[in-house]
Write a structure and sequence with these properties.
By secondary structure, the protein is α/β, with parallel strands linked by helices. It is built from 17 helices and six strands. Strand 1, helix 2 and strand 2 form a beta-alpha-beta unit. Helix 6 crosses helix 9, helix 8 packs antiparallel against helix 9 and helix 13 packs antiparallel against helix 14.
């Protein structure tokens, strides 16, 4: 899974550093990053001369987006553009993780009407200014903004109705738990996304499809053979494959992750362990030894198209939880998706390991 697909986006209205809205986003950002998640915020990641509209569209395509709703957000052109872009893509309710601040008045119909009036007025004001120009040529950018106001008004009630019907918990509850509920929901979403997008999962949903042979006009190619026609490949694949005109695909495992990607993920994990303050060098070495055993087991499993033994994973997780529970959170955030692709319910095993480590 690419770095982009693994990222968690935060959509919110900027504020001064002393602003409560900014404070809660900063705490959320820090809380999730220390657990190993990659967090993308436009304030930090857009960069000088970055294209704002394209960045907002990228957020709209994200698989995990934390939406921090505030009054300023619901009156901001950029924030509302991000929100309608998120809604434009499928699985809106599964992809968004709302945090509703007290000044976001979405729970009463009269308040939502006020927001709709706000965007209607913005549209009417801009339209009146456009008509005052007389010459309506060469106003592409202005007309685009007018269209945006239309979209905001059309989508506002539908989207805020979705949020008001979600049990988002209060910001105080989320902050007191250091956003544990948000983290758990994100990890669950990431694991389910990995399962549903992995080639192994897709092949399982297509078992009813008939396997074609040469008599059906399909061609199967063996070593050093030349084939023409269509080739349909189903089920599990391993080893080195040559496809087309000498195009070689090598060492790609059937769960959608390569050996090189596995190594890269675990390298990140070792780096996170090394960076942790408050953990002795001896404990860090023990943690890395456990992680090394997990890496070996995962690598062997994907090479053989096998499942990692859950009992083994459970033992390693309990060992890590006893030494450093927060490191186990980092382990799940970093390698939870590959384990899910191998059929291992990593989050569930980790939660159980934490409980058992307390006994």
């Amino acid at each position: 899974m690419s770095e982009y697909e693994q990222a968690v986006f935060i959509s919110y209205a900027w504020g001064e550093e002393t602003n409560e809205r900014e404070a809660i986003v900063n705490q959320l950002d820090h809380s999730l990053q220390k657990r190993g998640l990659k967090i993308i915020r436009d304030k930090r990641d857009l960069g000088y001369k970055g294209m704002i509209r394209q960045f907002m569209e990228r957020i709209g395509e994200g698989d995990c987006i934390i939406v921090v709703l505030s009054d300023k957000y619901l009156r901001s052109k950029n924030c509302m553009y991000e929100l309608v872009e998120i809604a434009k893509n499928k699985d809106f309710t599964s992809r968004v993780f709302p945090i509703v601040l007290p000044d976001a008045k979405i729970y009463d119909a009269k308040d939502r009407i006020e927001y709709k009036k706000y965007w209607k007025q913005k549209k009417e004001d801009l339209n009146r200014e456009i008509l005052s120009l007389g010459d309506l040529s060469n106003i592409t950018g202005i007309a685009e903004e007018l269209d945006d106001y239309d979209r905001f008004g059309d989508e506002f009630d539908k989207l805020t109705a979705i949020f008001k019907n979600m049990n988002t918990l209060s910001p105080d509850i989320l902050r007191e738990s250091d956003f544990q509920q948000v983290y758990d929901a994100l990890i669950s979403r990431m694991a389910s996304t990995w399962d549903s997008t992995s080639p192994q999962s897709k092949s399982n949903t297509k078992k009813e499809k008939k396997t074609m042979d040469n008599n059906d006009g399909k061609v199967s190619a063996n070593n050093n053979s030349t084939s023409v026609g269509s080739i349909s490949i189903g089920g599990k694949m391993s080893g080195n494959l040559v496809i087309g005109n000498n195009n070689k695909v090598t060492n790609t495992v059937n769960n959608g992750i390569s050996a090189a990607e596995i190594e890269q993920l675990f390298d990140q994990l070792y780096s996170e362990i090394d960076k942790r303050a408050g953990i002795s060098s001896a404990v860090k070495e023990d943690l890395k030894a456990d992680v090394q055993e997990i890496q070996t087991a995962v690598t062997q499993a994907v090479e053989k198209n096998e499942k990692v033994e859950e009992s083994f994973v459970s033992r390693k997780f309990r060992s890590i939880a006893r030494m450093a529970p927060d490191i186990l959170d980092v382990v799940i955030a970093t390698i939870g998706n590959p384990l899910a692709g191998l059929g291992v319910a990593a989050k569930k095993i980790a939660d159980k390991a934490k409980e058992e480590s307390k006994g």
